[in-house]
Write a structure and sequence with these properties.
By secondary structure, the chain is mainly beta. The strands form ten sheets. A six-stranded mixed beta sheet has the order 10-9-12-17-14-15, with no helix packed on it. It has a five-stranded mixed beta sheet with strand order 11-19-18-13-16. A hairpin with a 2-residue loop joins strand 21 and strand 22. Helix 1 crosses helix 6. It is globular and about 70 Å long.
Length: 728
């Protein structure tokens, strides 16, 4: 009979071999975010602003194509929180999308770790909090996906570097007040101003701009060229971006390299991102205005909706002078902005995420499988509530995320696959209605805006090809005007009032994906839906398994019987990964920590009020943990492994602490934050028995110095993936 050491060594060797199956070789970059309120006065009025690690705007998330981003979010707000990644496609992984259709919110005082790969993408994007108009209070930041070294840029590397610029309208009211106004059936009205990088306007006008406003200054060197990555992160206002006396050379938008063209000013609509190369080729003895002013709005109140920053040459001795550079004068030529949008075209010869040129994907050779015509109107009252709708459906988010409802076959009645993909007669209604899309269909989506305000639309999980804009009502004949040669691929598009915009998209990314209005007020009022895209083949190659740290809410509860009833994916590979997931805890501790001392049972008992970690011994075998309570340990306790880990005298060895490295979560059986630990016995064999006191009240938890009383375990947790499980 093999010794215990031999059996354990065999298990560990198997784990090493299986790690190659469940993990990718691509690099991982870790981010730790503490989200909290801070008090600032961007427009001179003190208010609560959402900051990340004390910063507003938040820190930059920069990775390279195919890298994995692990973002540990601690929610120190007094409300639930989710982050979404605007433009990041999250290939095969809608579990990380950070909207209510895919994720339960991160509760206040808790944390959760996002883990996703930026697969086959490059470019400029941003993240933001997706719940309850929170973006109107901040919480946003930039995402840069750099090219791999084997993929050249289609322009010389800017010698001045990168500059990220956030522009957006801003209210002095906090986001709760804005939400309350909408709940009461009121429109939000005119914003109080425009922020540039979280700061108010330079005092270009003594009447409009009060004293004491802190403004943004961007420092540059004469003669150098900089890449400005500009994002409109506002509530609903389209903004015109321009820099006094400087040209804007457009080179990229939302992950696509564009035909390079110079502009004196450029319209950037809510949710959109653009990259410009800007050369510092003007008189270096002066500073210059950077302006973001409102578009398509009339009235004296809108004159204040202008953001102004300063472009400061290092050799300058003079402040900006003169009047602000003029905005577009298109009062009597409404197609000025639309023509500018039509001029944004794909650079067919440039390589992007892959060495092959962007233009190698020929959309003009693919037959359209289905057409969606999605029409929005001005907000209306439905059942006494102000609502916005698409095709007569005003979406209402259920308590259970759609993706979780899909995963568990015993969770029913959460949503219906009855969203009309064409406008229909009848009274508008409020519903959790979803588009039943077909995997690998090549779909034509027409956005018809019958509102009197410009709208933007964003699709998570995809980039679509923007093939046409025009005023009036779309018809089949409108296809004659489509640009199928060099239509740009992006994820957020504008739809002018009384006009339509047409896009083409290949539905090859399995999951449930949000399609929403970019304007926060319209989105909150229900101008959104989801596309459900399922691979009918019985395998999990086209979608990653459910994360091991998934949060549960609504009808989706913590599984208590050890059996997951899964829709559309195979159980075997994910359960295989679950074994590796648990063993990797031991491996990581063994790999990175030096054996030193035990954490004895007496020590566990004496500091139990601080540790909140207990082992429930089996009644039939000494030293074997069949029930383990998981909670947070203080960060001063390092990852420890007892030196006799491989000895045969297990019955004499106490349990030990192993660093979890984001493997398990605290709130629902998974710990994700640094300083958290898994308490486990030395010779436990998979599947491990793991129990959470919130899920299994059978485990009593007295705050005493003795170990808790443990009843027989009622279930086995079998997680379905490790956080870093990736297939190339």
């Amino acid at each position: 009979m093999a010794s215990r050491q031999q059996r354990l060594a065999l298990v560990l060797l198997s784990a090493f071999l299986l790690v190659g199956i469940c993990s990718a070789a691509d690099p991982v970059r870790q981010f730790n975010w503490e989200v909290s309120y801070i008090t600032l006065s961007p427009l001179g009025v003190p208010q609560q602003v959402i900051a990340i690690n004390g910063q507003f705007p938040g820190p930059l998330l920069e990775v390279t194509t195919n890298w994995n981003a692990v973002v540990n979010v601690t929610n120190n707000l007094d409300e639930d929180l989710l982050f979404t990644w605007n433009g990041i496609q999250l290939r095969r992984n809608s579990w990380q999308d950070g909207v209510l259709g895919t994720n339960c919110p991160i509760p206040k005082g808790q944390n959760w770790t996002y883990d996703f790969q930026v697969k086959d993408q490059i470019g400029s994007f941003f993240y933001f909090p997706s719940l309850n108009l929170q973006r109107a209070a901040g919480g946003y930041g930039g995402i840069i996906v750099d090219n791999r070294s084997v993929v050249p840029l289609p322009f010389p590397l800017p010698d001045g570097g990168d500059i990220t610029v956030f522009i957006g309208d801003w209210f002095n009211k906090n986001h709760r007040d804005l939400k309350g106004a909408l709940d009461q059936g009121k429109e939000l009205g005119t914003p109080d101003g425009v922020l540039i990088n979280g700061r108010g306007p330079y005092r270009y006008n003594n009447t409009i701009v009060p004293l004491g406003i802190e403004y943004e200054t961007i420092n540059v060197e004469p003669g150098k060229t900089y890449r400005f990555r500009v994002h409109n992160v506002g509530t609903f206002t389209s903004l015109n971006f321009r820099i006094q006396s400087h040209s804007l050379l457009l080179v990229e938008t939302e992950g696509s390299y564009t035909v390079q063209q110079n502009y004196t000013d450029f319209d950037i609509h809510v949710g959109q991102s653009y990259s410009f190369l800007i050369s510092m080729d003007q008189d270096p003895s002066n500073d210059y205005y950077i302006v973001a002013s409102s578009r398509f709005m009339n009235g004296s109140l809108w004159s204040r909706v202008t953001g102004v920053a300063v472009l400061h040459y290092s050799s300058s001795k003079n402040k900006p002078n003169g009047s602000l550079p003029d905005p577009p004068n298109d009062l009597f030529f409404k197609e000025y902005s639309m023509n500018q949008a039509r001029s944004v075209r794909w650079n067919l010869s440039a390589s992007a995420a892959r060495p092959n040129p962007q233009g190698s994907f020929k959309i003009d050779t693919i037959n359209i499988s289905e057409t969606y015509v999605l029409r929005n109107e001005a907000p209306i009252f439905i059942n006494g509530k102000l609502r916005a709708a698409i095709n007569g459906i005003s979406y209402s988010s259920p308590d259970t995320p759609l993706r979780l409802a899909d995963y568990y076959t015993n969770v029913t009645g959460v949503y219906k696959l009855d969203f009309p993909v064409m406008p229909r007669p009848g009274a508008p209604r409020i519903a959790a209605s979803v588009i039943n899309s077909t995997y690998r269909d090549f779909v034509e989506v027409v956005f018809q805006n019958n509102d009197d305000k410009l709208q933007t639309y964003h699709m998570d999980g995809y980039s679509f090809f923007v093939v046409g804009f025009a005023y009036g009502e779309w018809s089949n004949a409108s296809r004659n005007s489509y640009n199928k040669w060099d239509a740009v691929a992006r994820s957020t598009i504008q739809v002018y009032p009384g006009a339509w915009t047409a896009v083409l998209v290949m539905l090859d990314n399995v999951g449930i994906w949000n399609l929403r209005a970019g304007s926060l007020d319209r989105w909150y009022l229900g101008q959104e839906t989801y596309l459900r895209i399922v691979n009918p083949e019985p395998n999990n190659r086209t979608e990653l398994p459910i994360p091991s740290n998934v949060l549960y809410c609504g009808k989706a509860y913590w599984p208590k019987n050890g059996t997951d009833h899964v829709s559309g994916s195979s159980l075997l590979p994910s359960h295989l990964c679950s074994v590796v997931a648990m063993l990797s805890v031991l491996l990581s501790c063994q790999r990175f920590s030096n054996p030193s001392r035990f954490v004895a049972p007496s020590l566990l008992g004496s500091i139990s009020s601080r540790l909140n970690v207990f082992v429930c011994p089996s009644s039939s075998a000494k030293g074997v943990a069949t029930g383990v309570l998981i909670a947070e340990a203080p960060p001063e306790l390092p990852c420890r492994q007892p030196s006799p880990f491989l000895s045969a005298s297990y019955e004499h060895n106490p349990p030990f602490l192993a660093g979890s490295s984001g493997l398990l979560t605290r709130r629902h059986g998974v710990l994700t934050d640094p300083g958290s630990f898994l308490c486990i016995a030395p010779n436990v064999a998979p599947p491990f028995g793991l129990h959470d006191r919130n899920t299994f009240p059978q485990l009593s938890f007295p705050p005493t110095k003795s170990s808790p009383t443990c009843r027989p375990p009622v279930g086995i947790l079998q997680s379905t993936s490790t956080p870093r499980s990736r297939r190339k």
